[in-house]
Design goal:
Length: 180
């Protein structure tokens, strides 16, 4: 009986993967503009340890609608040779920007992807300790996945202490609103 339950679960997952649209399509020949844009990013940010040019299926993302039960949609993710399924569990919209948040099936971590009104996508995919950023590649239609090594990021700046009391640097209405 247990084998039938495991088989049914495996079939349900494989069916969900088969029915879920691909979110990223690899681009083998990115434009010269996109290549130069990403090369400059890599030069300026040593925490970028890998890049992959992609087209983002923004049309499928923008079709996602909130329902009474999550996930609202699922997407296949091909990220640096690994395959995942992204479940969209939360949607929000502001000033034409759409934010899609969720989880990767079977893994710890979160995903947040924003689509701007012009179709530019930015996001962060965290699977366990692995972090991948999704960003614009400097040329319409081109995006890049950036594999990030958090240990190579610059150290955080020293925090600036913030008082919840009356701060003479704030206008009176802000001091009052923040004082308690």
């Amino acid at each position: 009986v247990l084998s039938h339950v495991l088989l049914a679960g495996a079939l349900a997952v494989s069916t969900a993967v088969a029915q879920s649209p691909q979110l990223f399509t690899p681009i083998s020949n990115p434009s010269v503009v996109a290549q130069a844009f990403v090369a400059k990013q890599k030069t300026n940010n040593r925490a970028i340890v890998g890049t992959s040019f992609v087209r983002v299926n923004t049309a499928a993302l923008l079709r996602v609608q909130a329902t009474n039960t999550a996930p609202f949609a699922s997407f296949n993710l091909g990220v640096f040779g690994k395959s995942y399924v992204f479940d969209v569990n939360r949607l929000s919209s502001s000033f034409g920007y759409r934010l899609f948040q969720g989880k990767v099936q079977g893994h710890e971590g979160d995903i947040a992807i924003t689509v701007a009104p012009d179709g530019v996508v930015y996001g962060v995919i965290q699977v366990g300790t692995n972090v991948v950023e999704v960003g614009y590649a400097g040329d319409p239609g081109f995006h890049v996945l950036r594999k990030i090594d958090g240990s190579l990021r610059p150290p955080n700046a020293t925090p600036i202490p913030v008082s919840s009391g009356n701060n003479p640097g704030l206008p009176a209405q802000s001091r009052t609103a923040n004082s308690g």
